[in-house]
Amino acid sequence: MPFPLFRSSICFRCTFLLYGHSRLISTSVRKMSMLYDGLPLTGYQFARKDHFLPMRNESTASSEIQITLNELKLALAKEMGVDHPFKPYSKDREYLTKYLPKSQDEMPKRSMQDSYIAAIIPLSQDVALQEKYTTFLGSVRLGRLVEDMDIFTVIVARKHIVNPEAPPGNFPQTLVTVLVDRIDFTEYQPKPNKDIKISGHVSWASRSTLEVVVWLEQLDDGHWQRITRALFLLAARDPTNTYASVVNPIEPSNERERTILFGGEDRKKRRLEVVNAHVSKQMPIGPEQKILHNLYLRTTDPSDISMSKRILPPQCVWMSSTKVSNVILAQPEDRNLHNTVFGGFIMRKATELSWIASYMFCKYRPRTRSMSDISFKQPIAVNSLIHMHATVVYTHKNFIQTIVYAQVYNPMSGLTSTTNAFHFTLEAPDIVPEVFPITYYEAMLYVDGRRHFHKDLKETQGAFDSKL
User: Fold this and answer.
1) Where do the HotDog ACOT-type domain residues begin and end (predicted)?
2) Contact 337, 2 (CB under 8 A)
């Protein structure tokens, strides 16, 4: 969802920067886990001559990027006509509907290079910013980075969309996050006192949706170290966020862009397959039924013919005991451009709650390895009570799979509505207890978590050497 508003007053540049890479330097990859054995840190960026370059590291100084992420946020906020300070209502944007195109034929075709942009999170210069990004262990808060990536995808998508009919300084469309396909983290641990570069471009587009790929890198000892790569899916809507609006089609400018575009079609099919195969729509397949039956047999007393007693095996934990919850009162500073709760804020809270649940479960400080299939079902109003639940649903050796649900709670009616679901894979430094379901509902969570873990394990291998 679009980004939150910031209270700081920083002048901005409305010109988006196309940043090129001038030098390629290879590095070795340290193998630390089963999930990341042999994971190459190769990504693809744009050079000034409009060619893709395979990149591992570069020695270009962060000072060459002349714009910060916060400046880009403020530039878009101004274009959207956002007021400061907060008002409990949004400006009427319905008059902009007349500028919306009726079909994609009215929109100029765009290459992926047209949407490419890079900005800096200036941690090396801003002490107050360092405080926001630093964990109690002295590393960088991943939740803050996830929040930044969600903000940045909107900026990238905005750069892709060119509407010749729109008046200068106005952007009729509304951009919302529909899904986070996946976010993968490398072995590199970012530092809270060094600049982070955030960059990305539109990698696929349909009639009204856009897929955006985002990279995070940190300048360390003169070289850019890859932190993560993320894939977001955004939808373009009308000015009142009521119905879909068309976006510019993509016309690949070279063979590399054609390869990426074909990969986007494959990812679209995979997303549909995941949705259609969910346990809420299809019963577990044969091998999964056998796994669940074996779990049941391991927790029954063979001497009790009624099979009513459930016994927890050694070094195991009931799934119900791993659940951790919190309640958040959304505030105006957590809002987006449309006076609803910013999706990146919800992602940050879910990331941190998942880590807390895993920490309490395994007694080690785990590392978040990947996030996938993060869904946004409906907007959340500012002043809502957001109830979040994190549960460990599957474990394998030293890996922990968690799911986090976000629900809006109405204290007057007592009713709740589930708005978001998040899937996380975390890694502990040692073998963790095995988690056991005790009800059919928990058994379905177990199956779903197991599917996500093995799917992410397969897709993460070489994630930074893929079609993106």
Assistant:
1) 118-240, 320-432
2) yes
- With H, G, I as helix, E, B as strand and everything else as coil, classify residue 424: strand
Structure token digits, residue 235: 């939808």
- What tokens appear for 228 in the block? 């993560």
Element (H, E) at 132: helix 127-133
Mean pLDDT of 47-71: 54
pTM above 0.85, yes or no: no
Residues 99, 220, single domain; the answer is yes
Query: CA–CA separation, 374 vs 403, rounded Å?
Result: 10
pLDDT > 90 fraction of the chain, expressed in percent and rounded: 47
- Structural domain includes residue 323: yes
What would the two tokens of residue 197 be? 């570069």
The neighbouring-strand residues paired with 400 are 395, 426
Domain boundary at 275, 295, 325, which? Answer: 275
Tell me the pLDDT tens digit for each residue of 147-180: 999 989 999 999 999 998 888 878 888 898 889 9
Does residue 400 contact residue 426 with C-beta atoms inside 8 Å? yes
Judge whether 236 and 154 are in contact, CB under 8 Å.
Answer: no
Mean pLDDT of the chain: 81
Co-location of 284 and 268 in the same domain: no
Beta strands in 221-358 (DSSP E): 223-237, 316-318, 324-329
Average pLDDT of the segment spanning 290-300: 92
CATH number at residue 301: 3.10.129.10
What is d(CA 394, CA 288) in angstroms, rounded to the nearest whole number? 13
Check whether residue 198 and residue 325 sit in a common domain: no
- 415-425 mean pLDDT: 91
Calpha distance 426→184 (Å, rounded): 11
Domain of 243 in residue numbering reads as 43-275
